[in-house]
């Protein structure tokens, strides 16, 4: 199983090595699952377009990220008719409740609104990355094609605690990747609040 786009600690350019992926898809006899949870935040091509080339490919997408509907617990699996038939045989009955179905169908009919919101998140992400890079105690801001940014931060836990005490909730990922904090991209006002709080750390 692969995440597409890759987690932000990897260079986005890795996706462009299509020949390696083609060799993998063509030579592997099992089922290959590509998780495209953050596909809406990248310009890279969705692997849905490759389904006809690889009958063993399954592409997963979700309503939780770009559409902001995590509470609905709805996702999609795209694959060959043969694999989808297997899914239908094994899935539990009524696996998606009616209220979630109604909400998702309504959201999918308003794609222009979703596109506008996605572009706003991308713009805010660029703003956040630019300003995070201006602090000398932030050692590296990893490339991101998602709705969050991962940064390597000096004294990460202290910075995390300071922001938490200010009512700004981020994620301390230091147990997974040493000295890293994950900043979710919110509204422009929220991004500016993060930058303002980080400036206070710099001044102190």
From TrEMBL:
Transmembrane segments annotated in the record for this chain: none
Domain (Aminotransferase class I/classII large): residue spans on this chain: 25-198
Signal peptide bounds: none
Cytoplasm is among the record's keywords: no
Gene Ontology molecular function, alphabetical: histidinol-phosphate transaminase activity; pyridoxal phosphate binding
Enzyme class at the top of the EC tree: transferase
Pfam families linked to this entry: Aminotran_1_2
Cofactor(s) named in the record: pyridoxal 5'-phosphate
Domain of life the protein comes from: Bacteria
Keyword field: Aminotransferase, Pyridoxal phosphate, Transferase
Enzyme Commission numbers on file: 2.6.1.9
Claim: Cytoplasm is one of the keywords in the record: no
PANTHER family to which the protein is assigned, alphabetical: HISTIDINOL-PHOSPHATE AMINOTRANSFERASE (PTHR42885:SF2), HISTIDINOL-PHOSPHATE AMINOTRANSFERASE-RELATED (PTHR42885)
Name of this chain's protein: Histidinol-phosphate aminotransferase
């Amino acid at each position: 199983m692969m995440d597409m786009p890759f987690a932000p600690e990897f260079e986005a350019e890795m996706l462009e090595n299509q020949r390696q992926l083609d060799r993998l898809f063509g030579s592997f006899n099992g089922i290959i699952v590509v998780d495209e949870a953050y596909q809406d935040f990248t310009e890279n091509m969705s692997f849905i377009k490759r389904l006809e080339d690889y009958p063993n490919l399954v592409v997963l997408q979700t309503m939780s990220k770009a559409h902001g509907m995590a509470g609905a617990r709805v996702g999609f699996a795209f694959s060959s008719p043969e694999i989808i038939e297997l899914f239908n045989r094994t899935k539990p009955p009524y696996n998606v409740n009616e209220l979630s179905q109604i909400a998702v169908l309504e959201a999918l009919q308003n794609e222009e609104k979703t596109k506008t919101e996605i572009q706003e998140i991308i713009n805010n992400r660029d703003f956040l990355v630019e300003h995070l890079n201006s602090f000398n105690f932030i050692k590296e801001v990893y490339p991101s094609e998602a709705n969050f940014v991962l940064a390597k931060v000096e004294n990460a836990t202290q910075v995390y605690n300071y922001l938490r005490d200010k009512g700004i909730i981020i994620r301390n990922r230091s147990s997974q990747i040493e000295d890293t904090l994950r900043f979710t991209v919110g509204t422009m006002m929220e991004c500016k609040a993060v930058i303002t709080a980080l400036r206070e750390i710099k001044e102190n």
